[in-house]
Every structure is written in structure tokens, then in C-alpha cells.
């Protein structure tokens, strides 16, 4: 008797094998693109004590001045007419199906064909707004803290802790760097591969805002919310190690509305529309940092930033305040257009829409003695 071939089983097995091979290739190629020689930390520029004092004074003046209600939204609307929506919800809510634009594009610009996974995830999240303890009727000041080496030696930590909402990016640490970067964290905004591995980097009662770039990111964040272990085979689809556990309660998780990324990239920065590709993106994905600045304009009345600025003319200098990665690593990446982003941030600062506390993008205070 001729045995029947278990075609369904084989097809399923082949499918998983192909997915694993593609995942391994993705990890390898991304690793190559991000690998860089370590830089000598001694090459970090010397911080003039007088300059550090000027930086600290500038931050103090901003905090002591009268907060201007709805200022940053109005200014963004003025600068980017018909491109900036002052009413865009910053985080995904359960009524998301009423917003058709969310499902127009694939991640990270939208959740096309992922409504089922999104619905499952939202069932686990009890809250969708800002954290408890922030008065809804107060004038809020935000600061978005980047990872730039420009923060080292400025001793801005105390001032940064005084802002109402402190947004930190990816795995940028506070342990051991509090004098320069503070230790208050209202929002930790990251994608799975960027989430801190150390549980000590999660601030009590702070929000964890997930930026979802691919289908498997939904599975990871769902595992984190449910305090479950992600299957080993699924971990192959991440280009670096991801956190095993996020030590916050389900009510502290938020999902970034992809409309914020779409608004940042396609409308404000005027990047080309996403197109189907077998591999990667067309340098039309904004960095987490710039996306966080736009998010902050939707959350707060005034916005400042610190630790921003890529000096690509000095490729052998350290990129971050916390490691030895070279600035030249940014030249090898193919996802972000840092030149366009720098011009955008410079425009915001020169127009007075946001303030650059550390002067890495545009030093508005270097020649001034007061606001």
C-alpha cells in the first residue's frame, strides 16, 4: 500500500525553516551594518566649566519662566500647516478601528493586516493615557533626553529631573550617569531590541512606550505584558538580544500610535511613501529620537531636548554618553536620514518651538546671557 505524504506537515515545516533562515540572515546583516570599532573615550571633547555653567543656567531659566499653555502645538501647526495634526492621539486605544489611517501602511508607519494581533494586545492594556500623578489641567513641560556624548560633563541631571515629563530613549542608562542625565523617567520609549536589559533602568510608575516595527514585535510586547517567556524560535527574528522581562505593571504599557511615525516621516520630513521591499527600508524611517520629539509636542505645552546631535565630521569620536561606539557607525546605517533630521531639529530650535538644552543641534544660548 502506498503511504500518503503528509503534505500539510511538510509545508508547515518548510515554512518555519524558511522563516528561521530569513531571520538569521536579517540578524547577520544588521549586525554587520552596526558593528564599529570602539573609540577611545579620551577623545571626548573637553567640557569647559564655564560652558557647563551656561548650560545649567539656561535650563534653570527655562524652568523658572512662566509655562505657555498649548504653545508647542500651536507653533507646530503654524510651521507645518496641513502636515501636523494637533488632535492625533499619541497612544493606541481600544477604539483604534475607527481610525482607518492606522491600517493603511505596514509597520512602523501603520498596522496593515495586523488588526487581529493589535486587538489581542489591547485587551491586555487597561490604560491608554499619561501616567497617574500628572494633573490634567496643568501646563506641562517635556524634555526628550537623547543618548549623545554631548551630555557628558554638563551636569544637567538636577535640572532634567525638574521637568514634568522626562522621555528617555531605548536602553540609554541612568545608573552611573545621573549627574549628567538625571534619573527621573516618565516615559521609556523603545522598540524590542532597544529595551534595557537591566531591570534597574525602569523607573517606578513610569510608562513603557513600545514602538512596533514588525509583526513579531507584537508577540514580544504581549509576552512582556503577560510576564511570559518568548519562545526561543521567535527570538531568532530580532537582530539583537531582547529583554526577558519588563518590570512594570500592565497599566504602565503603551503602544505608540504609528500615525505619529507616519506624521513625522511622510508629512513633516517629507520622506517618500513606503514601498514593498524584500529587505529593509528606504532611509525613510525616522529615528526614535526625532519621533519622540514629535510625540512630546502632542503630550506637552512646552518641549525641550538634550543629548541630541550627530557630528558626522568626527567619525572617530564616541557616539553615546555611555559606551565606546564610534560616531562613524551612523554613516553605515541605511534606515535613518540623520542629515534631514538635523535640519528639521535646527528649524524647530531656531524658530523657538523647542529648546536645545545641551546645544548639540543648535546652541541658541552660547552667545546669550539670558532668555
Automatic annotation (TrEMBL):
This is Lactosylceramide alpha-2,3-sialyltransferase. GO terms for cellular component: Golgi membrane. Keywords: Disulfide bond, Glycoprotein, Glycosyltransferase, Golgi apparatus, Lipid metabolism, Membrane, Signal-anchor, Transferase, Transmembrane, Transmembrane helix. One of its GO terms (biological process) is lipid metabolic process. It catalyses: a beta-D-Gal-(1<->1')-ceramide + CMP-N-acetyl-beta-neuraminate = N-acetyl-alpha-neuraminosyl-(2->3)-beta-D-galactosyl-(1<->1')-ceramide + CMP + H(+); ganglioside GA2 (d18:1(4E)/18:0) + CMP-N-acetyl-beta-neuraminate = ganglioside GM2 (d18:1(4E)/18:0) + CMP + H(+); a beta-D-Gal-(1->4)-beta-D-Glc-(1<->1)-Cer(d18:1(4E)) + CMP-N-acetyl-beta-neuraminate = a ganglioside GM3 (d18:1(4E)) + CMP + H(+); ganglioside GA1 (d18:1(4E)/18:0) + CMP-N-acetyl-beta-neuraminate = ganglioside GM1 (d18:1(4E)/18:0) + CMP + H(+). GO terms for molecular function: lactosylceramide alpha-2,3-sialyltransferase activity. It is an enzyme of class 2 (transferase). CDD domains: GT29_ST3GAL5 (cd23983). It is a single-pass type II membrane protein. Transmembrane segments: none annotated. Belongs to the glycosyltransferase 29 family. Transfers the sialyl group (N-acetyl-alpha-neuraminyl or NeuAc) from CMP-NeuAc to the non-reducing terminal galactose (Gal) of glycosphingolipids forming gangliosides (important molecules involved in the regulation of multiple cellular processes, including cell proliferation and differentiation, apoptosis, embryogenesis, development, and oncogenesis). Its main location: Golgi. Coiled coil: none annotated. InterPro entries: Glyco_trans_29 (IPR001675), Glycosyltransferase_29 (IPR051142), GT29-like_sf (IPR038578), Sialyl_trans (IPR012163). The keyword Transferase applies. It is found in: Golgi apparatus membrane. The keyword Membrane applies.
Amino acid at each position: 500500500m502506498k503511504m500518503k505524504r503528509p503534505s500539510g506537515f511538510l509545508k508547515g515545516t518548510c515554512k518555519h525553516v524558511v522563516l528561521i533562515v530569513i531571520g538569521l540572515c536579517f540578524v547577520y546583516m544588521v549586525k554587520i551594518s552596526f558593528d564599529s570599532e570602539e573609540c577611545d573615550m579620551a577623545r571626548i571633547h573637553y567640557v569647559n566649566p564655564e560652558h557647563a555653567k551656561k548650560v545649567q543656567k539656561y535650563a534653570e531659566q527655562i524652568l523658572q519662566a512662566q509655562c505657555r499653555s498649548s504653545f508647542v502645538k500651536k507653533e507646530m501647526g503654524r510651521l507645518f500647516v496641513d502636515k501636523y495634526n494637533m488632535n492625533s492621539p499619541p497612544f493606541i486605544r481600544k477604539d483604534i478601528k475607527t481610525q482607518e489611517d492606522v491600517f493603511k501602511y505596514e509597520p512602523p508607519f501603520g498596522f496593515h493586516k495586523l488588526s487581529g494581533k493589535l486587538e489581542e494586545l489591547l485587551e491586555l492594556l487597561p490604560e491608554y493615557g499619561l501616567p497617574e500623578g500628572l494633573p490634567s489641567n496643568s501646563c506641562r513641560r517635556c524634555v526628550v533626553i537623547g543618548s549623545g556624548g554631548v551630555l557628558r560633563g554638563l551636569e544637567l541631571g538636577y535640572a532634567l529631573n525638574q521637568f514634568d515629563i522626562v522621555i528617555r530613549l531605548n536602553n540609554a542608562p541612568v545608573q552611573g550617569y545621573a549627574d549628567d542625565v538625571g534619573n527621573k523617567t516618565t516615559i521609556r520609549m523603545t522598540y524590542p531590541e532597544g529595551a534595557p536589559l537591566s531591570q534597574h533602568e525602569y523607573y517606578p510608575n513610569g510608562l513603557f512606550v513600545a514602538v512596533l516595527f514588525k509583526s513579531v514585535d507584537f508577540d514580544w510586547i504581549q509576552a512582556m505584558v503577560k510576564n511570559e517567556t518568548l519562545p526561543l524560535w521567535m527570538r531568532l527574528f530580532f537582530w539583537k538580544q531582547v529583554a526577558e522581562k519588563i518590570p512594570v505593571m500592565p497599566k504602565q504599557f503603551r503602544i505608540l500610535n504609528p500615525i505619529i511615525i507616519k506624521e513625522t516621516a511622510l508629512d513633516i520630513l517629507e520622506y517618500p511613501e513606503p514601498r514593498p521591499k524584500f529587505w529593509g527600508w528606504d532611509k525613510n524611517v525616522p529615528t526614535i529620537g526625532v519621533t519622540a520629539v514629535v510625540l512630546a509636542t502632542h503630550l506637552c505645552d512646552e518641549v525641550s531636548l538634550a543629548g541630541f546631535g550627530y557630528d558626522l565630521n568626527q567619525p572617530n569620536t564616541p557616539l553615546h554618553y555611555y559606551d565606546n561606539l564610534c560616531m562613524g557607525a551612523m554613516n553605515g546605517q541605511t534606515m535613518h536620514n540623520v542629515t534631514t533630521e538635523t535640519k528639521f531639529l535646527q528649524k524647530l530650535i531656531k524658530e523657538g518651538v523647542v529648546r536645545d538644552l545641551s546645544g548639540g543641534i543648535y546652541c541658541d544660548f552660547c552667545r546669550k546671557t539670558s532668555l
